[in-house]
């Protein structure tokens, strides 16, 4: 039976305060990050699940604004193959909400053994990840009870924004301090359009969630949420990849959720994707992107009032709200999706 309220919904509402506390706690650590920056050239992100989607944001952010090559690790190289890789000059950034996912902690330790310096991003002070890292960025999300990550995910994004500042990105820290206010603005928006999208998703078995650049991380995380809590066959794709064949799956019964920051250089391509989807007779639902994307979509939800480098912190909120509401509308409890727990151990 559907629940009338959920812990997930209350934790979505907690995000502005969690972000405010996280930014206040982590911005003073930029000198420690800068010290590591002087010893490294490249960045290797180590993560799984929602944390891996956060790492995608970090990768785009560091390459676009800090001038550093950033890649995503394959933890099995360390944990399964036991390979030795020269990581001198590399900053390994391990991201784990719990700080105790063995695969992530072990891979960060492996990276250190291979010559890397290390940063741990986690919500748990005193966890194995914080104890093993050269610098620990401990987010201030508080206890997260619902299995789908909401406030732990957005505070991870904030931690990666601080990382970018510490690594030399010429961005404005005061804009980061403005994020909680922008999150409050998203949460205060009228729900009519969001409610309409939820009702139109009832009965579909699959969806495509698409964005590009900084917003690609939001597409991946939005698709993951729909899979976790609503059991939809949701695919998160860059629109560049979507146009290389998978767009064939988008049809009347497989809608596209299309996400963009209003100030992004990828916005024009995102708008063209929405027009192509609707011209093919498929539904297109927008998240963010301002009037341009709204006019190209059947229904659209406004995004946050934030510059592109911070927009993903707010763009994920409508996807979280859609997921929570759709799960309850379908009769599922979004707090406890089947087969999932807060800590997933892999090898």
UniProtKB/TrEMBL annotation:
The keyword Repeat applies. Residues 33-173, 197-337 form the SIS domain. Pfam families: SIS. This is Glutamine--fructose-6-phosphate transaminase. The keyword Repeat applies. GO terms for molecular function: carbohydrate derivative binding. One of its GO terms (biological process) is carbohydrate derivative metabolic process. Keywords: Repeat. InterPro entries: GlmS/AgaS_SIS, GlmS/FrlB_SIS, SIS_dom, SIS_dom_sf. CDD domains: SIS_GlmS_GlmD_1, SIS_GlmS_GlmD_2.
């Amino acid at each position: 039976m559907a629940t009338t309220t959920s812990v997930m919904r209350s934790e979505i509402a907690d995000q502005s305060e969690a972000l405010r506390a996280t930014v206040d706690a982590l911005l003073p650590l930029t000198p420690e990050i800068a010290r590591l920056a002087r010893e490294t050239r490249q960045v290797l992100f180590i993560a799984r699940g929602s944390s891996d989607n956060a790492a995608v944001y970090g990768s785009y952010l560091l390459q676009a604004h800090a001038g550093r090559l950033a890649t995503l690790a394959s933890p099995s190289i360390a944990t399964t193959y036991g390979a030795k890789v020269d990581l001198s000059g590399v900053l390994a950034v391990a991201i784990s909400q719990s700080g105790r996912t063995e695969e992530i902690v072990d891979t960060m330790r492996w990276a250190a053994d291979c010559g890397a310096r290390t940063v741990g991003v986690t919500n748990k002070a005193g966890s194995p990840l914080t104890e093993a890292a050269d610098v620990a960025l401990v987010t201030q999300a508080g206890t997260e009870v619902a299995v789908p990550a909401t406030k732990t995910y957005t505070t991870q994004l904030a931690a990666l924004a601080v990382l970018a500042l510490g690594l030399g990105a010429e961005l404005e820290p005061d804009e980061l301090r403005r994020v909680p206010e922008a999150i409050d603005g998203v949460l205060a928006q009228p729900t009519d359009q969001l409610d309409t999208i939820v009702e139109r998703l009832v009965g579909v078995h699959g969806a495509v969630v698409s964005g590009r650049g900084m917003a690609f991380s939001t597409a991946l995380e939005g698709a993951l949420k729909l899979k976790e809590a609503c059991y939809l066959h949701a695919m998160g794709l860059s629109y560049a990849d979507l146009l290389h064949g998978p767009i064939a799956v988008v049809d009347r019964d497989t809608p596209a959720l299309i996400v963009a920051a209003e100030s992004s250089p990828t916005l024009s391509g995102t708008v063209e994707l929405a027009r192509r989807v609707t011209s093919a007779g498929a539904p297109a639902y927008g998240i963010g992107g301002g009037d341009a994307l709204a006019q190209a979509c059947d229904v659209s939800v406004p995004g946050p009032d934030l510059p592109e480098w911070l927009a993903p912190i707010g763009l994920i909120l409508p996807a979280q709200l859609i997921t929570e509401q759709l799960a309850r509308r379908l009769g599922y409890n979004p707090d406890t999706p089947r087969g999932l727990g807060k800590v997933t151990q892999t090898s």
